[in-house]
Write a structure and sequence with these properties.
2 copies of one chain form a homodimer.
Chain A lengths: L7 H19 L4 E2 L1 H8 L3 H9 L5 E2 L3 E3 H11 L6 E6 L3 H8 L8 E8 L8 E2 L2 E5 L3 H8 L3 E4 L3 H13 L4 E4 L12 E4 L2 H9 L4
Parallel strand pairs in A: 4-5, 4-8, 5-7, 8-9, 9-10
Antiparallel strand pairs in A: 1-3, 2-3, 6-7
Bound molecules: nicotinamide-adenine-dinucleotide (2 copies).
One nicotinamide-adenine-dinucleotide (NAD) sits at the interface of chains B and A.
The structure holds a DNA duplex.
Chain lengths: 206, 206
DNA sequence: CCTGATTTGTGCAACAAAACACAATCGTGG
DNA sequence: CCACGATTGTGTTTTGTTGCACAAATCAGG
């Protein structure tokens, strides 16, 4: 069975499954079913089964899924069965919160570098990582072979920083700045903008 | 033409259109077309037109859309033609970044209250907002009639805090904790989890 | 006032995703 | 070792979303 092009919407649900499964593991559970998982996530059991079946047969009829095994499989599919080094650009409030955040380690990521253009910030340490000058960014990222960046600079400079990141070989960008970015094909961008999320919900309020 | 149930996926794109249009306005532009907007956002022009047509006729054939007018219309549709008071729970790194963030004001939101359970934090000021004790949360939220909350507490206590928020009348929650929340019908939750976003992208890396 | 270049709004066709429903399989307990 | 309840994986149906293509409208220039 060769890998068909899997719909991106399916890929997007896998990390959510993974997060829920990890939580079940923490609660000491060993086995779960598509039904139980679906109830917790507000997703139909059939959908979960179909999503997983795109990648193989991971369950046992009559029993369900061995959680530890399924976690390992999804990690493998998502390529987070390794640790990716990540660069953070912008050592402001958001950059600080990200570097300080302990939740990346067991989910496949390690913040390896952080950059800023403010001379007052360059050289200071955030956790155990020293803030480096943006002028060195391309060289450092290229040298370390970093493919993933989180962008936490003001919106006004986001596009220019992105252009540099792409040139340095970055292929995945998580953008906190409230602007749409233009990137060449082959580079992926995801957006985190709390205002966008909130505005999606206000529509449904009275 | 009475309001039909508009697909949620359409609602979710409106804030993105709004953000791009606002940016065009800042750049001094007065008029745009579905084609231009689509190119900037990586969305087909037809889709943008169809999305907007769900709510009325906002454009002029041969000309395009008056940006200021369209912005006002979308703000109205999303109900962000007013300012919503928002409560933040958890005065840690994320809570701090949110309170400090200047980007909510012109997008329909104002952080009005912040709560924590750490006695060292209660009473201190973040920007011009005093951190209040979680014990007072329900009363304060109810009294202010707040309907929207941002949740920035550890995952382990997120569900219990959410239960309290819901009981206090909150109907929209933006959750930063990496857990799926269970809420009664009528309450909306959106999730921000950088690991989930990153894991969606690693699938496509080599 | 006519012509041509644009661009909207939308009916319809094509495509995609989700739900349904059930045979196949598994484990358990008698 | 058989029968039953549980649960998967999947072919089929249903539902939802996107793209296409064009009439209708608008504007500018001659
Ligand atoms: N704070 C939040 O909760 C929040 C929420 C949503 C979005 N955002 C967005 O995230 C981004 C960062 O927000 P923040 O609150 O951390 O802002 P901040 O001002 O605290 O930090 C921005 C940092 O970027 C640095 N910087 C500026 N120009 C740079 C450049 N050219 N190269 C490298 N570094 C540069 C600044 O020196 C500063 O340290 C902004 O785009 C903001 O709109 C923030
Ligand atoms: N920092 C990040 O970049 C980041 C990224 C993604 C997700 N998160 C998540 O966001 C949440 C907050 O992260 P953080 O970095 O700000 O953590 P943090 O530890 O800095 O802050 C958490 C705050 O919540 C408070 N708190 C704990 N229990 C509480 C309770 N029962 N009621 C009220 N307040 C309580 C703590 O006193 C603390 O001030 C966590 O769930 C974290 O996993 C953080």
């Amino acid at each position: 069975m060769t890998r068909n092009p899997i719909p991106e919407i399916v890929i997007g649900r896998l990390p959510v499954y993974l997060r829920a499964l990890t939580r079940l593991l923490e609660q000491g559970r060993q086995v779960t079913s598509s039904q139980e998982l679906g109830e917790r996530l507000g997703i139909s059991a059939a959908q979960i089964r179909k999503d997983l079946s795109q990648f193989g047969e991971f369950g046992k009829q009559g029993t369900g899924y061995d959680i530890e095994f399924l976690v390992a499989k999804i990690q493998e599919i998502l390529k987070v069965d390794r640790v990716w080094e990540v660069a953070v650009v912008g050592a402001g409030d958001v950059g600080h919160a990200l570097v300080n955040y302990g939740g990346f380690h067991d989910r496949g990521f390690k913040i390896a570098q952080i950059f800023d253009n403010d001379p007052d910030k360059v050289g200071t340490s955030y956790k155990d990582i020293v803030v480096m000058d943006i002028a060195q960014m391309q060289e450092k990222i290229r040298k370390a072979g970093i493919k993933i960046a989180m962008l936490a600079v003001p919106a006004s400079v986001a596009q220019e920083v992105v252009d540099q990141l792409v040139e340095a070989g970055v292929e995945a960008i998580l953008n906190y700045a409230p602007v749409n970015l233009v990137v060449p094909p082959g580079v992926r961008v995801q957006y985190i903008d709390p205002s966008v999320h909130l505005q999606t919900m206000t529509y449904f309020l009275d």
